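In response to the reviewer comment on reproducibility (Comment 2.3), we provide here a single inverse folding case reported in full, input and output, so that an independent group could reproduce the run without further information from us. The structure tokens appear first.
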């Protein structure tokens, strides 16, 4: 697992074949190799929306991204193979 700070309140986590964008403390978008780009269907602040759009554009995935439930993005960080600090996750319901 690799964790990179890519901007103010923007973190990218690489886990195997997945790249996950965390805005503030919440996973909000991801790229899965061979599968595509995904963004949360939950409506967040204007700043988080800018984070998502900027990150997807930097990976050429803005136009191809599909919306998925926030719970699906949360579950990407809940893998038995590693532990993620609780401060990276925030429980949110769609």
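Designed residues, in position order:
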């Amino acid at each position: 697992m690799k964790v990179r700070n890519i901007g103010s309140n923007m973190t990218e986590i690489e886990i195997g074949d997945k790249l996950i964008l965390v805005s503030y403390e919440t996973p909000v978008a991801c790229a899965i190799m061979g599968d595509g780009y995904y963004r949360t269907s939950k409506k967040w602040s204007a700043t988080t929306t800018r984070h998502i759009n900027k990150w997807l554009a930097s990976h050429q995935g803005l136009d191809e991204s599909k919306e998925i439930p926030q719970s699906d993005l949360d579950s990407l960080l809940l893998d038995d193979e590693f532990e993620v600090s609780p401060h990276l996750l925030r429980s949110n319901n769609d």
